[in-house]
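Appendix B.2, paired examples.
Example (i):
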Amino acid sequence: MNDVSYETSFIVCSEKSLPIGTSKSPKFLIVLHLPRGSPAIRYRPYLESVNGTTLVDWAVNRFSNLFPVTIAHPDPSELGAFAAAAESAAASVVICCGIEAAFVPSCIFHEAATRHLCSGAHWSTVTGLPKGIAINLYEADLLLQLRDLRLPGKPDNPIALIRRLSAETLRGSAIFPPIRSAVYPASLDRQPRILSIQTAFDVATARIAIERSEDDPERLFEAWIDAAALPAAEPQWPTSPRDDRTRVLFFSNYSGYSGAEEALVETVRALPPEQFDKLAFIPVPGLFSDRMSAAGCQILEWAVDLSAPSALNVGVLADLLLTVKPDVIHLNAYSGMPILAAARVAGIPLVQHLRLPELDPLEEAMQASTTVLAVSEYVRRQTFGLRVPPEKIVVLYDGVNTERLNPAIIDRRESRAHLGIESDRLVVLLAARLERRKRADLFINAIEIVSRSVPRLLGVLAGNDTGDPDWTTAIDQCVIEKNLSRHVLRLGFQLNMAALYAASDVVVSCSDCEPLGCSVLEAMSMALPVVVSDSGGTMELVAQGKTGFVFPAGDAAALAAALYELASQPDLLHAMGCQARAHALSTFSIDRCASSLADILLSNRRLPANRV
């Protein structure tokens, strides 16, 4: 087996020529595809231990009983990865599946392969399997042709692309030869309804099923059913002695990292440790848990989605609260019904932070909380139509760590050199996840307009993909179609945002309905002028014409005009940047925000006499 870092997405390939009663022996390639995880999260369920090895290595060994196994790194796209694997192995048919397929009886693979060849299909799919398992068979030639097809907004997923091409054919506007498909309905007497390996529960079930079927791997489905019926093992929460400090549990069911998590981390860091005993529940380890730990929190982890409404989740969280005995619980985002129920039973007050554009899912949490924190006046207004007493709502703007985000201590030339940006470029930054409401399309349109008059302009898109491959593809295709490869640089998730701000000249926020905008606060702290839309709460941070510009939401021409004004007047750009930092220092310091949060936590806490 080749040496491969499991921290990135990769494919495990196994190949074999299967004699199936035809005049030739086609070469089959099995591709075990592990989806690319968020770079902010370290937890990978397939790296958990089973039978003295990892789950992924167990799956590889399971397939190796039928096929010689190799490992190959993928193309950044799923389609490209499958095509590259087929090309390198000189395969004629590619069978693609996830790690869950290693539990499927081997007869299913053989029967599916036989039926695929006999049908003459270009693409076949196996149906009738448990939810969570997908097995698809592709002619290798088809994958290569799909990979090389030039198509605006081409989906990254081969099945999505095939369905789009088939729909075009049905509409009479065929752009690709007809793709023949076939279905193999698997039929097994006994199989699980769902088989998915994503959480600690799933891994525990897989571990038991593997151990119980070690002598007969073809019984894995039955073993999974039996293992799933066993009582779930509950976590053992750490205990620590209590003192006179107020114990706060910062509870989050989300383990990723974005502006909302960064704002919380910096605020928690600034809470005085002599006054607060800080704990944080974050399901899986990663950047969020690392930074909350560095902010002084004891981290509680369990890789299970505890937001789902179930008696089991309520019981697990009730045990957590009984063990750690917090005086108050802070909810940073949507957390689900179980923590609300467990807190109510334990008599522990809740403080809900509102950082999301959609507040309806948080209505129950707001009703259960003693205080609700809105990050802007805009967010506060969004609560008016909900069944929440207005006196509960307190506006608390996020703060920014102006000592860490200080242009005087970060080398601009070094930051640009690290990113490969020339020293003479005028850099406009959009720091946002690549999701539709962040409006990267609007940003690109504005960059196109301004670059006609300012050839040195460079628009930088920095942020993680968000599981919408069609949108990601559309944005990349937009850059290509507008011939903007010299004027748009797309970066992925960035750990060192301070260096990215140091390399920039202007920061843009063009989102629809942005609650506040962490990147805008950070940009001002780094003495950068900001250009923001008037949709949402971001405009509340900006002194129009002094620290930046506010433009009408969705208006690319207006955004371009504001950028051109800054690009064409270096003195204005510098003056606005200086005023932006002064504004951040005087109004949005992290100490001021933390002091307000401290007062709120103390006023909402359970008094020592009422502790369990």
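Example (ii):
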Amino acid sequence: MMRSALCPFVLAFVALLVGGCGSNDEAIDEIPVQKGSIGCLEYEIKDHIVTITDCDPSIAGKLEIPTTIETRPVNGIGQHAFERCELLTNITIPSSVTSIEVSAFRGCRSLTSITIPDSVTCIGDYAFAFCNSLTSITIPDSVTSVGEAAFRDCRSLTSITIPNSVTSIGLGAFLRCSSLISITIPDSVTSIGGEAFLKCESLTSIAIGNSVTRIGNDTFRNCDSLTSITIPDSVTSIALGAFKNCDSLTGIAIPDSVTRIGNSAFESCDSLTSIAIGNSVTRIGNDAFRSCDSLTSITIPDSVGSIGRGAFEHCTSLTSITIPDSVTNIGEGAFQNCSNLTTVTFLGNDPRKGWGDTFGGATVKLFDQAPSEKPIAATPPAKSGKKFPSSYKELMFGSNPIVTDKDKAFWEAAKSGNLEAVQRLLSEGVDVDIYSSTIGAYFGCTALFWAAKYNHKEVVQFLLEKNAYIDAGVGMGGSPLHIAAYEGHPEVVELLISEGANAEAKTVDGETVFDFANEEIAALIRKGIEEKQK
């Protein structure tokens, strides 16, 4: 920076070496640059273009940038030219200027007003960032792009006019403009960068133009006062955290043009009571509507194929939901801690993943169009007349047992390896294959599964002697053999194989025991199979 506000007029000629775009052997052109100072300003002239490059930081009050220097028009405000000129209150930019470069007025904390002339086409990254006293600004019709963080932390800015000429709003362009009340994004804008309006805490309404195709990551996150927003039909995706923590947003309509709702897109929108999801959405992302405490109903369209992990977790006002037959994948905990959710209507085949922890232990009434219960596959030979669910759908919609406290004690005894308690409870009439259909941690698991998981070989042996179904859990989360291999219990694996466990049986994800086994256990399983085939 310059050291004095009254600098003598000095001219100096220097050479700027610019390398070519090809190999190192290409000729290097010398581009002459003339540098000088006038009053409190420094400038450079390059190819007859005059750019203001620096200013004395002690300059205070109003400043008028000259229209010409050395008979040439001033064309640009260079990078960092007025950065941290904290005493400037008003700046007049001449109509000859076409560009305001990176951080040109960054940190001008006393600047209250500035007029951008119609000649400017580009506002660079951080151009007016941290201008804390700037209350309003009008962007002229000539500007086509607003750069990254261009007005970031302009905390006194209450209004801004974006003209129809602007096609893109950069990353964090208005981040933490905490006094901004409303904004209209014109039809010319096709791209809104991530975090563009993040933490605009006073923003109550937004009008998004009809050319925007994507709402980026965290674009309107933490806009606490935002009560409504209209998403135009041009938008195809709503990205990560786009409206997260918009606490005052009460309702939203997602148009048919949108195909994807990103992770955490509407997470913690505490006042959101209803959502209309368009008929083109194929995926609802992880945590998309997590902790929307006031959400009472939602309709999931037939286009949705996947509901992500925790998508509706902690939606405590949600009482019922219908899952269409298009859904094939529901992530873990998708409806966990929905404390008032009592009814789920499921219209399709069982999703390929996730049902085991979907409701996080909640007891819900599940309805299906075609409840079914099929005899288990006979490998090894099934018990006469014995039925056991072979899929999550059968487990949820079939005729399941009522679990008693004694049944739960039986599972706990198997988990802890308490053989005496296991024997006693069986003698008191507990079914050796009792399983839980309450969706949660015990979903579809038998005592044999738990004994195998926790490496209690003696309990496994005893349960098998009592005719426990050895492949319980096949087609769902996994059988006793799957879990023993996963946990790395070679003796239990060897016992199960010797007693006829099906090594080719698959989980709901299509995985066999070999997908879980380490090399030692995989070799043990192959050896056991070979010995049985002799």
